[in-house]
């Protein structure tokens, strides 16, 4: 979470490019984001040790972490599939688990981690993690606002994309098993921060783009050859 790309709002908004988060990040962030970061740090204060651990796991700071994420996700969804639990039951159990964690985990963390174990380096990592979370949130809001703005600036593209995407979701939801689909989406979301940090998605995007260009060039060559005949 401490890795992020460029984030550029519209021309009438604030501009910043947080290629890396440093101790003086406050100098380059707008006041609205400063407030959000401060509130997030306060709200996550009882969980700060767990936040750092989750950040390390999601960013694959150990080579074993992606395997652990995949194994954990697979185990949970295998249990759900084996028990054949109803959707409402799964939601209730998830809510119960989150409630118990919210009630008990701060006390458990306070007992396991003493205040003197929290040094300046951990505080810096905690602040960088909170800053990265707010930056990703802001980037998602900007992307969402840009797409919604198409409804006014270019309605044809907006409705075309919306209709095609929703029809695709309807087809996928009716074709793929719901548990399998949820498992794939959850696993992808868990692995995405690490893939972003290690550049895997960028490499995949570049490879896909190169393959598409090769297919287009091959199709053009065949069409030109047929016309020549």
Automatic annotation (TrEMBL):
Which UniProt keywords are given for this protein, alphabetically ordered?
Membrane, Transmembrane, Transmembrane helix
Q: Per the database record, which ranges form the RETREG1-3/ARL6IP-like N-terminal reticulon-homology domain?
A: 46-206
Q: How would you describe this protein's topology in the membrane?
A: Multi-pass membrane protein
Q: Where are the transmembrane segments?
A: 68-87, 93-113, 157-174, 180-196
- Protein origin, superkingdom: Eukaryota
State the GO CC annotations.
endoplasmic reticulum; membrane
Question: What compartments host this protein?
Answer: Membrane
Instruction: Write the signal peptide boundaries.
Output: none
Give the InterPro entries listed for this entry.
ER_autophagy_membrane_reg, RETREG1-3-like_RHD
Q: Which PANTHER family match?
A: ADP-RIBOSYLATION FACTOR-LIKE PROTEIN 6-INTERACTING PROTEIN 1 (PTHR20952:SF0), ADP-RIBOSYLATION-LIKE FACTOR 6-INTERACTING PROTEIN (PTHR20952)
Q: What is this protein called?
A: RETREG1-3/ARL6IP-like N-terminal reticulon-homology domain-containing protein
- Lineage, uppermost ranks: Eukaryota, Metazoa, Ecdysozoa, Arthropoda, Hexapoda
